[in-house]
Amino acid sequence: MTILHAAILPTILCCCLAYLLCGIPFGLLIARLRGVDVRKVGSGNIGTTNVARSVGVVASGLTLLLDAGKGFVSMELARHLIPWMAEREFKVFDLSQTAGVAITIVYVACVCGHIFSPYLGFKGGKGIAVGFGAALGLDWHIALGVLVVFILVVVPSRYVSLASCSAALSLPFFALIFGAAPVSLIPFAFVSALVIWAHRSNIKKLLNNEEKQFSFHSSDTKA
């Protein structure tokens, strides 16, 4: 049995675990502790940006930390579980090898879990924070590159959606730059397209000059 064949079932199981873990809507849960249903205010999104606008800086910071954290934890679990279940000693996180495609598929599951949360009728956030956290667990070089793109766009423009789409577009390129095998670029490209699709309403608003620039909840700005 080849390494890839041995990794198929462990990868599927880790994908299921990552999907369920990353589907936890931390933004919704945190906002509810403050008496706010973020699905009914602002953009209606459960992610960090809408929590910041609707609840405040502390809640948004915690949302960002937990959303990124669930992606990172999912990848760390896969790092150990796939070789253990496959009973093979191989570097599943070596993206330069064909076997590295297994972990990039788990990466897809992380982002899908957040965007299509099984706990919210397959609705959810837009995949940026969880995607960054999972990328950090996958390869910090890729995560850093994507973060730099995000910052370079969001600081001058203050449009989180524009920065998010720019970061998503850069993901496959950074994966290529840092040595990912060609077959691993397919999952990265899929995540890039999925995140941009999740921002389709924001893109329409940007084109119509209707998108709101980033700001925190008024109660925090006054504090």
Structure notes:
The protein has 223 residues and is mainly alpha-helical. It has one domain. It has helices at 3-22, 26-33, 48-54, 57-86, 101-115, 128-138, 140-157, 160-177, 185-198, 200-207, 218-222. It is globular and about 50 Å long.
Quick structural summary:
The chain is an all-alpha fold. It has eleven helices and no strands. The radius of gyration is 18 Å and the shape is globular.
Instruction: Report strand %.
Output: under 5%
Tell me the Rg in angstroms: 18 Å
Oligomeric grouping of the chains: single chain
What share of residues is helical?
Answer: 55-70%
If helices are DSSP runs of H or I spanning 4 or more residues, what is the number of helices?
A: 11
Unreliable parts: 219-223
Spell the H/E element sequence: HHHHHHHHHHH
Q: What does the overall shape look like?
A: globular
Could you outline the blueprint of secondary structure elements for this entry?
Elements: H1 3-22, H2 26-33, H3 48-54, H4 57-86, H5 101-115, H6 128-138, H7 140-157, H8 160-177, H9 185-198, H10 200-207, H11 218-222
Keywords summarizing the entry:
223 residues; mainly alpha
